[in-house]
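User: I'm curious whether this sequence folds into something compact or stays loose and floppy. Could you predict its structure so I can see for myself?
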Amino acid sequence: MRRRIYWLLPDLASARRTMDDLLLARISERHIHFVAREDADMTGLHQANVLQTSDVIRAAEMGLVVGGSAGSLIGVIAAIYFPIIGDAPQWGLAAVLGMLGAGFGAWSASMIGISVPSQRLKRFTPMIEQGQILLMVDVSSSRVQEIEARLQALHPEAHLEGVESNVLAFP
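Assistant: Here's the prediction. I'll summarize afterward.
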């Protein structure tokens, strides 16, 4: 399980030095994410992608649940009242419509969620708009204190903003 450490850095020069220090600490570039204003020059930094900056994952999960539930309910009604063959309920139809509803719900909700800013990053928006850089570092639970201590020692200008414990290992 990984944990995400949030840091606010005052400017791009500090962010670039921090990136180099994290690479020297053997943190893979794919686990280092920076968020800055739209007009910031992010050359040399690993910019956060849409999975980190939007609510696409949460929206897809909600769409999966709602779409699957609605599809299953419609499927049960169709299986009981509108059987395809004979008079016996067609329970396979309920399962198929449930899966189709879940897939459609996840897809359609993720299309909406991709345009919604992440609720987890909402608290950082004013600081980012002022020109600060948000750093998100995903590290294993055993390395959290080591990385925090390293960044505090090497970058006194940076501010630790907290640790989040629910980070997927693959994005």
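Summary: Helices lie at 12-24, 50-53, 56-81, 91-113, 125-129, 144-154. The mean pLDDT is 87.
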